[in-house]
Amino acid sequence: xxxxxxxxxGDALLGERRQLTMDxxxxxxxxxxxxxxxxxxxxxxxxxxxAGPTIDIEGILSxxxxxxxxxxxxxxxxxxxxxxVKSVPFLDQDEVVAAAKETAALGASGFCIVLAVKGPxxxxxxxxxxxxxxxxxxxxxxxxxxAGTLTSEQARxxxxxxxxxxxxxxxxxxxxxxxxxxxHTWEERHDTCMLVREHGMELCxxxxxxxxxxxxxxxxxxxxxxxxxxxxxxxxxxxxxxxxPLQVRKPLSALEALRWIAVFxxxxxxxxxxxxxxxxxxLGDLQSMGMTSGINALIVGNYLTTLGxxxxxxxxxxxxxxxxxxxxxxxx
Length: 332
Ligand code: SF4
What we know:
- The chain is α/β, with parallel strands linked by helices and 332 residues long.
- It has helices spanning 2-16, 22-29, 36-51, 93-105, 122-139, 152-160, 177-180, 186-198, 215-228, 254-267, 279-283, 287-291, 311-321; strands spanning 56-64, 110-115, 142-146, 165-167, 202-204, 207-209, 232-237, 272-275, 297-299.
- It has a single domain, classed as TIM Barrel.
- It is 44% helix and 13% strand.
- α1 runs parallel beside α3, α2 runs antiparallel to α9 and α4 packs across α5 (122-139).
- The protein is globular and about 60 Å long.
- The termini are far apart.
- The structure holds iron/sulfur cluster.
- Iron/sulfur cluster is lined by residues 68, 70, 72, 75, 77-78, 116, 118, 148.
C-alpha cells in the first residue's frame, strides 16, 4: 500500500538516516497520481532534514552563444539545426562583470558563465581564466563555469584558477543518450564529471527530463547521477525549441514533473537540487509546488536561450513560502 511505502521511506531517511536503495526508489516512483502530493510532502521533509531550510540562488550568463558543432537534439545552440538562436561571439569583460553584480544583488551565492562549445579551446580557456579572479575580486561571488567536456589538464587549470563549481550534465540515462546525441558519447560526459571531482572542484551535474525517455530510464539516470556524487543537480524539463529535432515533443505534465522532482530528492537527499530550464512551461502556475517537493535552489532570471520568470516573481514566491535565501536570510 502506498501509505506504508511512504512511511517506510520516511523511517529510512528521517529516522535511520540512510539512503534509499534503487529498488525502494523504483517502488516510490510508481505511486498513483493521487499519491504524488504525499510523495512530494515526504520529499520536502527530507529536503529540510538533510539539506536545511535555505534556498540557494544562482544566475547564469552565456559568455558564448550558439554555433556549437554538437547535435544534442534538445539544444537550440547547435549549429546543425535551423533555430532562431544565432551565434554570438564572446561577451566582453565589462558586460560579464555587470551581469555578475546584478546577480549578486539578488542574493545569489554563485554566478555561472556558460559557453556553447563541445569543450573549451585555448582562447576560451584564457578568457575564462582571466575572468574568474576579476569577478571574484570585484563582485565577491563564487564563479562557476560550464564549458563542455574537459581534459585532465584543463580541469586542473580551472581548479587552480579558482573555478568553484563546474557544470557538466549527464542529461539523460546512458541507455537513452544515443537517441538524442550522436556526436559525442555519454561516457565522455561521465569522464568529465569524474575529472571535475578528481581535481577538487564541486561538481554540478544536471538532468533533462521529458525527451521521450521511459520511467525506467529516469530511474537509471538517477542511479547514474548518484554514482558521480554531485554537489548540485539542476533539474531541467524539455522546453521543445523550434528547429530542433525535439520541437514536436510535448512537455511533461506538471504532475509528472512534480513526481520526478520528489523522486530525485528522495534519491539525493543532501544535494542542492536546483530548478532550471523548462520549469515555466512544464509547471505553469504550480511553480511553488516544486519548492515544496524537494527543490532547494533556483536559477533566477533568463536561461541561455529562453526567457525565465522575472527574478522579482521568484523572490516574491520565496517570500510567500517563507523560504529564506541562503546568503540573504536576514533580508527575506
Ligand atoms: S554540447 Fe552543449 S551547447 Fe553544444 S549542442 Fe550539446 S547541449 Fe548544446
